Amino acid sequence: MPLMRDSVMTFSELKQGMRVRIVGIHNDSPEARRLKEMGMTVGTTLNVVKVAPFGDPVEIDLRGYRLCLRKKETLGFDVEPVE
Amino acid sequence: MATVAAGTRLVAIVGNPNAGKTTLFNALTGSRQKVGNYPGVTVERVSGPLQLASGSVECVDIPGLYSMSPVSEDERVAVAAIRGEAPANRQPDLLICVVDASNLERNLFLFSQVAELGIPTVVALTMVDRLESAKRLLDLSRLSNLLGVEVVPVVGHKERGIKDLLEAVDRAFESPQPPDVDFTLSLETKAKIASLRERLARSGEDFTKRELKDKLQSESNDLASYAKDFPEIEEVYVRALDAVTSDVEPTPEDDSSYRYGWSTMVSRAAISEPGDPGRKTLTDRIDHILTHRVWGMLVFAGVMYLVFQSIYSFAGPLMDGIDWIFGKLSGWVGPMLDGAPVLQSLVVDGLIGGVGGMLVFLPQILILFFFIAVLEGTGYLARAAFLMDRVLGWCGLNGRAFIPLLSSFACAIPGIMAARVMPDVKSRLATILVAPLMSCSARLPVYVLLIGTFIAPKYGPVWAGITLFAMHLLGLVVAIPIVWFLNRRVFKGTRLPFLLELPPYQWPKWKDVWLAMYFRGKVFVTTAGTIIVLMSVLIWGLSYFPRSNEATTRYEQTFERQWVETEKQEPFGDKYKSAQDSYVAEQQLANSYLGRFGKTLEPVFVPAGFDWRITTAVLSAFPARETVVPSLGIIFNLGGDVDEGSVDLQQAINRAKWPDGRPLFTVWTAISLMVFFALCCQCMSTLATIRRETNSWKWPVFVFTYMTALAYLASVGINFLGQALR
User: Fold this and answer.
1) Cα–Cα distance between B459 and B282 in angstroms, integer?
2) Strands of A65-69's sheet, edge to edge?
3) CA distance B88 to B419
4) CA–CA separation, B118 vs B98, rounded Å?
């Protein structure tokens, strides 16, 4: 059992304006691989720019561009807030 | 598919979606493009000739992709076209890799993969103007060095850099050099290998950097013994060897991390960071309103209202104009063929009618693609999809399906064509397959006629309004379980995650807008249009033949006898003549192959509450549902010039009886018939467009079958319900 830190969150807990870093990816599906290919690799810092009016999808800023994705399609991506 | 003449050099434009690929391709080839399909798939192949100083080459625009590990059909075709596998079957001789300078890290990820193929490459660096406005400095020669290929900055729509790009392509053809990228080595290691290479070259030993790297990494290294003999070489050799062995080889699982590590390194080395990173960009300020939960939705509703009104109403005068021109053409050509009635009817009703009936869709297609090109070009389309994704996503569609479905309420044909805003084939197909269920404007006359005759007089305007609204809602409601079923049962395999890039806002590129309208219009007329005209001629034949002069004389005499018996008048005068014409037209239609087919099928439609007359009108409306009101006019002896507001037609269908004297129409029959029209796919133009857009007859056959079955079952159900409640 890995040590769980309180600060580790999943994508569904993201709120507008948060700044987080990807600390772990526990998903080997083709969908998750595609997200990594879009730049969501471990260590990448993301800014949550906006949450869509109905709660999903979320717009994030990473590697200098804006990507929007559905919370439920980012299963297995652990993030941690950064200052 | 466009065939490539043997010996023609092939240049392919590759790059990420939103990198400015289409704008560049349009600037390179303009209106000389050819639009076709890769064989057996729905993906379009767009290509055009390119003039170089060294002669002409073929330039193909490969669909945008994020990675060489494809997850969608579009990407599979794109990868196959780059690798030269089926269905493209030819590897390009040179790649123009489009790289967005303002999004360098992610764009270089694809470049790092493409570079490994060993195809000579030139990088076209787009959006350099965005760097300038963000006060970021670009070190072009450094970038070019790090990528190992020539990098040419272009501003496609201003034709800036296009000439330089063509010259670079020419140079790359003259001395072909594949990119020299090794994302597994650090910059320091590369520098050490470079100095080793230089040192060896001075001693007359020529190696490429890659060869040296492979030698240094291999166990049996013949360089080691060579280096021992030359101390000054040994020094550089040992330093390079140390560097190579201490760099870690990537494993497949963290391939992306390594590539991004490399692209981040290149990006930082070539472009300076923005001067004030916290500053809000213009895009941020616009998005503050346009993706706002209240203001954003209001603007969205306004924009969609404008788009819908444009194709629903503003296209009207243009469509009337086309009708008028073809009406005049018929009136002008018709009398020339007076001596040959069959040829006259073929040309006037079959050919001119068919071409006119096909071209009438053009205004809506052009207007819709104008809006789509502008909305896509500015970046708003992605915002609309962002706002709408939750609304459409729960049943298996996605936010991008909104415009195609909304447009289908005006007409399914532009709607189906608009489904190409969705890059994922499965979502696009699901949208195309349910788009014809949306209640298009051609269904309106049936609703107006039947509601005006059976609902409004008995139940008042409120129920008339509710019925009209319910008819428009019906297709949308039915579409939901169908999409759900398609996603569960028909489309196998993994679903692409919904990934939507929100590019910075920019002004639309007018050249791209006009070219999009021009090519969508051209593709419709030349491919779908041909099928539509051929089918029009076929349908004309079925409703015209068999026809003989003897039969016509017989109908005229029968009518004369009936007239004298019932009206107690001499068979003369205008009223007699027009009544006789209507009767003859009715008999001719009833005895045509189509009419006979209607009578044969009557038992099939009786459970839905339709007699042979309604059945014939329904059948005659299969090619195009807007013909049903004129068909009803002919069948009820009023001639083909009636419209849905005609009081005569309302009275005629109100009075019509079954042979046993029961009234033909009850409220339930009217609802049954309206539901049939709401759900049935009575539009060959839609089917021809689906054929074109999916590049297969399988899907139009599927749509026709499921919609007809659905319409029939629903009508039978309503008729039985009506009988049970009576």
Assistant:
1) 55
2) A77-81, A19-25, A45-51, A58-62, A65-69, B499-501
3) 23
4) 17
| Minimum distance, in Å, between the CA of residue A10 and any CA atom of chain B | 17
In the numeric block, which tokens belong to residue B647? 């009081």
Distances (CA, A) of B214 to B118, B120, B178: 16, 21, 17
- ∠ CA B68-B69-B72, nearest 5°, is 105
Domain ranges of chain B: 10-174, 187-248, 284-438+515-547, 439-482+592-726
Quick one: tokens of B628? 């049903």
* Contact of B62 with B12, CB cutoff 8 Å: yes
- Report the alpha-carbon distance of residue B415 to residue B417 in Å, rounded: 5
Residues in chain B, overall count: 726
Q: ipTM beyond 0.95? A: no
At B130, list the tokens. 């965005």
Nearest one of A49, A79, A78, A83 to A66, comparing CA atoms: A49
Mean pLDDT of all residues in B575-601: 80
Q: Are B689 and B528 contacting, i.e. CB atoms less than 8 angstroms apart? A: yes
Q: Which residues in chain B are contacts of A39 at CB distance < 8 A? A: 105-106, 109, 260
Q: Which of B183, B390, B402 to mutate to test the interface with A (most CBs of A within 10 A)?
A: B390
Nearest CA in chain A to B18: A65
| Tokens of residue B494, six digits | 């993994």
**Phi and psi, residue B56, nearest 5°:** -85, 140
Contact A63 B502 (CB under 8 A): no
Q: Domains in chain A, ordered, with CATH?
A: 11-81 (2.30.30.90)
Closest listed residue to residue B405, CA positions, set B377, B434, B380: B434
Whether the per-residue pLDDT at B182 is higher than 80: the answer is no
- Structure confidence by residue, pLDDT tens digits, B22-38: 999 999 998 888 888 88
Six-digit token string for B420:
């190409």
In what side-by-side order are the strands of the sheet with B10-15? B34-37, B44-52, B55-61, B10-15, B94-100, B121-126, B150-153
Q: Taking CB atoms and an 8 Å cutoff, what residues of chain A touch B500? A: 57, 67-69
- Residue B426's CB: how many other CB atoms inside 10 A? 20
Task: Compute and round to an integer the Cα radius of gyration of chain B.
Answer: 33
Tell me the mean pLDDT in the region B323-350: 87
Domain covering B10-174 in this structure, CATH number = 3.40.50.300
Q: With pLDDT > 90 as the criterion, what percentage of chain B qualifies?
A: 26
The residue of A51, A54, A60, A73 whose CB has the most chain B CBs within 10 angstroms, and thus the best one to mutate to test that interface, is A54
Q: What secondary structure letter does DSSP report for B390? A: H
Residue B389: CB atoms within 10 A of its CB come to 25
Contacts of B499 in chain A (CB under 8 A): 34-35, 38, 67-69
Dig out the tokens for B112 from the structure: 């790092």
Query: Rounded to whole angstroms, how far apart are CA atoms B668 and B681?
Result: 21
Task: Assess contact for B372 and B308: CB atoms under 8 A.
Answer: no
The distance from CA B410 to its chain's CA centroid, rounded to whole angstroms, is 16
CB contact residues (below 8 A), chain A span 41-70, against chain B: 41-44, 49-50, 52-57, 59, 63-70
CB distance B82 to B68 below 8 Å: yes
Count of positions (residues) in chain A: 83
Strand partners, B57: B50
Which tokens sit at B187? 């910059």
Tell me whether strands A58-62 and B94-100 are parallel, antiparallel or unpaired. Answer: unpaired
**pLDDT tens profile B659-685:** 888 888 888 999 999 999 999 988 888
Helix (H) or strand (E) holding A58: strand A58-62
